[in-house]
């Protein structure tokens, strides 16, 4: 801590132009407004990436464009030609990743790994927390930066009468709930920074707790209050 304070003092000293001090300061105290994981691509690299990527499914294109519009990024549909000069156009293609790293953890698609695909996440629009499975991981360049978007299928909430048959609703300190094993129709588009934690996921057969269908017991205790 003492050494860090000395570097800070030298950095704020207007009389110093020592490039080594500047480099050291950048390493031990990076600019928090810049993501260390951003990958910038040239126009040629973007073109090559999109040429090699498969087409987005129509529904994927629609919900991704809707998400971008909601966060203030007015990407036009690629078929709405002619495009005004300097307009943003959402490409029709994206690569599909089986897994992604975020906050030093690996997260996977449901088809690749059940446990790594089950997450608790943050909905930036309603400021609420949800749980679900990562269905698809899409990667594509936007404005010269390679970006990742996750399509998350929310866990199927049980009817209250069925959920109350399991004990978890009575003990919120367990940070656990029981959900239907059947997929829900609710899809969220999120970015890696919206992931809160992995869930521990336990499959329960039909009839467990008297519930007449298959379920999962999911727990977000791995969070340990980090977010």
How would you describe this structure in keywords?
single chain; 227 residues; alpha+beta; 2 domains; seven-stranded antiparallel sheet; four-stranded antiparallel sheet; 6 helices
Low-confidence stretches: 1-5, 24-36
Gyration radius over CA: 22 Å
Rounded mean pLDDT score: 87
Number of helices: 6
The helix content is 10-25%
Number of strands: 15
Count of folded domains: 2
Helix-and-strand structural type? alpha+beta
Shape: elongated
Description of the structure:
The chain is of the alpha+beta class and 227 residues long. It has 2 domains: 1-33, no CATH class; 39-223, no CATH class. It has 6 helices and 15 strands. The protein has helices at residues 2-12, 19-28, 43-52, 58-70, 114-117, 160-163; strands spanning 39-40, 76-77, 89-90, 95-97, 99-102, 105-108, 118-123, 128-142, 145-154, 156-157, 176-180, 187-190, 195-198, 200-204, 215-219. A hairpin with a 2-residue loop joins strand 5 (99-102) and strand 6. Helix 1 packs across helix 2. The longest helix is centred in the first third of the chain and has 13 residues, at 58-70. The two termini are 26 Å apart.
